[in-house]
Amino acid sequence: LADITALEESFRRFAIHGDTRATGRDMNGKNWSKLCKDCGVIDGKSITLTDVDIVFSKVKNKTARTITYSQFKEALAELAGKRFKDKSSEDAAQEVYRMIEGKSPVISGVTKAVASPTVSRLTDTTKFTGSHKERFDETGRGKGKAGRVEMVDKSGYVSGYKHAGSYEKKTKAETNP
């Protein structure tokens, strides 16, 4: 019973991968392909991505777009026969289960930012001109809505006037010498 839970645990992890609404009870074709790739079921020789897709289509219900856990095991058994031709179907299935047990989806290359000179020149906020430079503060952080929407200034001063609020101080200084 222990290996069933480890396998089912991996099934659930891959089933919910990349889908916030997924319950983990069924798996779509994309995540099935990902599971086969990440766990090394696809070896590029006896099993290719195409084989994996064909098996998925074969085991799922005609109108369904996902497979259940039992259909998942059925699909694995079918792939196991191709992957380990010299073993009995039972041994081959166990071998494939072992490849998947306890595995989680591999998240690859999501955070890598390309630092090419072209991109860095285009994204350097200090070189922005016109209305675009209004959208970022001195540190290069975006101002959000304040940088996009014209905020109405009801102070009575023209925009860009540097000495706003200094008139009162000046008049007080002149009346009280």
From TrEMBL:
GO annotation, cellular component aspect: cytoplasm; microtubule
Keywords on record: Cytoplasm
GO biological process: microtubule bundle formation; microtubule polymerization; positive regulation of protein polymerization
InterPro entries (UniProt xref): EF-hand-dom_pair (IPR011992), TPP/p25 (IPR008907)
Domain of life assignment: Eukaryota
Keyword Cytoplasm tagged: yes
Membrane-spanning ranges: none
Protein name stated in the entry: Tubulin polymerization promoting protein
Species the sequence originates in: Cyprinus carpio
